[in-house]
Amino acid sequence: MCADERIARARLLYERAVFGGDSGALATADRDLNAVEADLALARGRVVHARFLEQRTEDPAELALFQRAAELYRELGDVRGEAESLFWVGIFRQVVQGDNDTAVPLFDRSLDLASAVGDKLTMSYALRHLGIAEHVAERLDAARERLEESVRLRREIGFLPGVAANLVGLAYIAVGQDRRADALALIEEAATLAEAAEAKGIMRSVDEARSNLT
């Protein structure tokens, strides 16, 4: 059920409670509206984060939005939504605040929940950012394992821009492991995928990595 349908049903439930004396309808209305609020908070949080990536100015509303979404999804029993929201709370901690110690348990929990419901996209995101945390900690074997598993999932679901992004990360790891030939091959594959997907943002990362390797 989409947001508009939930809101319309909440109005009908209000009328059923007020005019029909069905007070039990209010609990259903609350649930519908909480679902709408959770979806909106998650979507708005992602927009705020995209603005951070563009302007590099922290907006405290971002964390509050993701935390609210996670809380509501948890209350609704929506495991998929909670997994995605917790991932984004982790992103705020890792990307905005540079706090991997706080982010990693959030990514771990997100991965567990997403795995339980077969949400391969969220699993791939959590694995990617767990890999980034391992890379920052200079645990290159663990970082490679996480990113390669993320790549596998993204190939399965056809998320080619995401595959390209991970290949760039794997190229940097390959350099750190003195696998220069592998690094160059990874960059070229990433470029091919990013161009095919018209992922200009990923192409900028590819070009930067290529210039660092040549």
Characterise the protein shown here:
- The mean pLDDT is about 95.
- The chain has ten helices and no strands.
- Helix 5 runs antiparallel to helix 6 (about 120-135), helix 7 (about 140-155) packs antiparallel against helix 8 and helix 8 packs antiparallel against helix 9.
- It is elongated and about 75 Å long.
- The chain is mainly α and about 210 residues long.
- The chain has a domain at about 5-115: Alpha Horseshoe (Serine Threonine Protein Phosphatase 5, Tetratricopeptide repeat).
- Order of helices and strands, N to C? HHHHHHHHHH
Low-confidence stretches: none
Which structural class matches the secondary elements?
A: mainly alpha
Q: What is the rounded Rg?
A: 20 Å
**CATH architectural grouping of the domain at 3-114:** Alpha Horseshoe
Number of helices: 10
Let me know the number of strands: 0
Biggest sheet overview: none
Strand content range: under 5%
Distance between the termini: 51 Å
Gross morphology:
elongated
